[in-house]
């Protein structure tokens, strides 16, 4: 979905679609790192969390640079493409969300995955609404606003993850640090 949304975002000149694609790539990288360190020590998990924070920071800063570059020109996002691609992504994310619904309370990892799916559904819905507003208002501002919101979420997530990873690395006590897509889980027991 990352590749499809990124390609469509570039073609449709939509920063919101590009932001949503970055979110999908971020989720994939975060899940891969999480699986790699799941049975390792707290220090390994803290190092992985630090890497996840850097990924989120990179995506957030990249989105901000993309938005600034757009403001220097006059972007012409294609609302219909935005809605169609985000609609396909929404269907996939709703299926995942539904499958995970009954497992969301099993443990912190399942809750984290469920929260990521929930956030993806919200993000897809935001891109669809942005596409409608781009067409209705004949303006690129809704696209940039949604992309900006996603960038802020990435930067907030990066801050929380990096702060928590630092605490865990130093061995500071913490019950749970909950950071799924905007929150990661480190159990310091």
Automatic annotation (TrEMBL):
Keyword Transmembrane appears in the UniProt entry: yes
One Pfam family this sequence matches: Cation_efflux
Annotated keywords: Ion transport, Membrane, Transmembrane, Transmembrane helix, Transport, Zinc, Zinc transport
Ranges for domain Cation efflux protein transmembrane: 1-167
Membrane topology: Multi-pass membrane protein
Domain of life from the UniProt record: Bacteria
Primary subcellular site in the record, as a coarse category: membrane
Entries under InterPro entries matching the protein: Cation_efflux_TM, Cation_efflux_TMD_sf, CDF/SLC30A
Regions crossing the membrane: 54-72, 78-100, 121-138, 144-162
Protein name: Cation transporter
Organism listed in the record: Zhongshania marina
Lineage: Bacteria, Pseudomonadati, Pseudomonadota, Gammaproteobacteria, Cellvibrionales
């Amino acid at each position: 979905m990352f590749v499809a949304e990124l390609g469509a975002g570039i073609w449709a000149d939509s920063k919101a679609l590009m932001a949503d694609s970055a979110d999908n790539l971020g989720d994939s990288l975060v899940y891969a790192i999480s699986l790699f360190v799941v049975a390792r020590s707290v220090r390994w998990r803290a190092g992985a969390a630090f890497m996840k924070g850097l990924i989120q920071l990179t995506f957030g800063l990249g989105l901000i640079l993309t938005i600034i570059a757009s403001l220097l020109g006059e972007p012409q996002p294609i609302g219909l493409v935005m809605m169609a691609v985000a609609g396909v992504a929404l269907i996939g994310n709703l299926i995942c969300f539904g499958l995970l619904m009954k497992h969301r309370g099993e443990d912190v990892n399942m809750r984290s995955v469920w929260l990521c799916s929930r956030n993806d559904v919200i993000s897809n819905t935001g891109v669809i609404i942005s596409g409608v507003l781009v067409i209705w208002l004949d303006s690129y501002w809704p696209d940039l606003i949604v992309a900006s919101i996603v960038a802020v979420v990435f930067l907030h997530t990066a801050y929380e993850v990096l702060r928590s990873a630092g605490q865990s690395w130093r061995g500071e006590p913490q019950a749970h640090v909950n950071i799924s897509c905007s929150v990661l889980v480190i159990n310091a027991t």
